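User: Glutamate receptor Gr2. Structure?
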Amino acid sequence: MSSDKTPLTPQYSQQQPSYPPPQQYAYPPPSYPAPQQQQQQQQAPQREASYMSSSSSDHQAYDISAAPPSYASATASSDVYHSNDPDLQEWKGIAAFDDSIVRRGFIRKVYSILTLQLLVALGFIALFLFNSSVKHYVQRNQAMLITAIILTFVLILAMACVEKIRRQTPYNYIFLGLFTLAESYLLGVTASYYDVDAVLIAVGITAFVTFGLTLFAFQTKWDFTGYGGYLFGALLVLICFGFMCIFIRGEIVRIVYAALGALIFSMYLVYDTQLMLGGTHKLALSPEEWVFAALNLYLDIINLFLFILSLVGNRR
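Assistant: Predicted structure:
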């Protein structure tokens, strides 16, 4: 076999890849991400990369410590509202703005219904005061009075205890309308036993106090929504005092009872108004509870009127 013949297999030195000298690498050697990790880094939001230049070679290393946290890490926390992410802060502002719009619509609806209820009550009072035939008829007809009292208690318990009646249409309108008619009838019968001047004075004082307390509840920074338990306790004391007044009669007892009742329901008016307002207050009614909110304010104003009427007038 001649010596210049080409070998059938390449030499080992030809299969071995050529490596650059070790001194051409920067220390430590660079780490290249896997293809899947590299694709995720390209899709994620990137900040301005910081680069470090090596003095011993032209290789540059990427500083991954400057990469921002992803949105998943922010939403995984228990409270995303405390995140400093600008997009989350913008979302929080939009949600608060939408909630304020819903709350304003809820307040307008409650006061619209309350205005209609008060107008119906004033109509019954005016009818029973200025029409003598109607006045004498309702004063002699005790059956209608007892029916109105029972109907009032049944309707108010149904609306307070059954959520479906308060929230589902048309049950809420039907029950609220029937309650307004029954309560207005009772107001008209009660007002028919007083002089016209005393009733008009009581209406004027009630309107002035209601307007002033409503403005106070809207503007004050004091939160009265946490005092519901104390007000309920005061209401129980007032009820017990009312039963005592049946057996203990006297002008001073009547004045004290009426003044205490007017004070308690004045505080209830502020309390229920702030429950309706919501916002920064401790407790708030849901916007779906517009029937309950209108019912609370209506009862506060009606009871305030009755106690003021008992103060300024004498029942015949």
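The radius of gyration is 39 Å. The CA atoms of residues 205 and 263 lie 13 Å apart.
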